[in-house]
Amino acid sequence: MDLLDVGRIVVGLVLLVLGGELLVRGASALARRVGISSLVVGLTVVSAATSAPELAVTIGAVLRDEPGLAVGNVVGSNIVNVLLILGASAVVLPLAVTQRLVRLDLPLVVVLSTGLLLVSLDGRIGAVDGVLLFSAVVVHTVLTVVVSRREAGARAPAGVPPGDRGIAGDAEASAASAASAASAASAASAASADNGAAGASGSGGEPPPASVLRSVLLVVLGVALLVAGASLLVDGAVSIATSLGVSSLVVGLTVVAVGTSLPELATSIIAVRRGERDLAVGNVVGSNLFNIGVVLGLPALISRDGIPVAGAAVALDIPVMLAASVALLPIAFTGFAVARWEGALFVGLYAAYTGYVVLAATEHDALEGFTGTMAWFVLPLIALTLAVLTAYELGLRRGRRDPGRSP
What we know:
The protein is mainly alpha-helical. The chain contains 14 helices and four strands.
């Protein structure tokens, strides 16, 4: 480890923050202009853009014959996305989750995660497996854009300009987030004319929404800064980690996964602070879909021998990725929101998982005690708490639908 590696990490972090800010600005304006919701932009444009570092790292790892780094990067990034990024974003501000996300996109993440586990059982992701994973994401992306455009056009009131229909569709898609979205929009319009201002009061003199070209340029510049920042940060972090003698799988699951997921982290937190909470959630869910279907599926498709999968990844890391996706379903379904305490719980689980990976990699003496505590006390307590709260929330929802049953 030297000062050059530390400098790369610092400069990479600065570029990530700047890139995330530009990407959120451009994507938000683009959503209003083309008439699709910020959720759909997060699920498609932003998620694909912020997953560019993962794709670059995975293809480079496959070409350098480092399959452990390729698989660890994707699996670790998906774990980071759900537990760390969604968790940290919810700690900053509770996240509203639309019904469409719960009914379609989150279940698809679970299905693709299960599919990745199944195709990895033989120790290799082959070309046919890559075709299946890649096709699922392509079909989902096309359907998402087509359905969103159709629903936005049908729901928009007469006289609403096309550029504002995505916002109108968002407000009707989730009653739970309507009030918070309205307050966020008014706060954003007071802070910046870029943030969705035009037409709010109906009076003249307000600047029009940003042009499509300007929005696209902001997205492209933001992506370029994100990729450059992630590349610098990963180079510095990998140099430090490998100098300590850690395996490529562990480096991929920890250092590289966090490094390549920092664009999602920067984008999601900036989106939350700017009131674009749908974009933040859509970014994470879309990135997980993109990581499995494209970042792993495409290299497996073009690779002659496929991508080998280490037994340790099949035994622990891919099941943890699947468990994180499954754990998000009841949290999002019960209240159509991710509360601050739930976000803090996710961040704590990520810290516990990372601690286990590091202890196992270094064969530390504390590994046995740590594993026993997590397996026999912490995880059962968390499962029991989630089960009780899920039952309580479902009871509340049932009571709201049928007030006559309430005592």
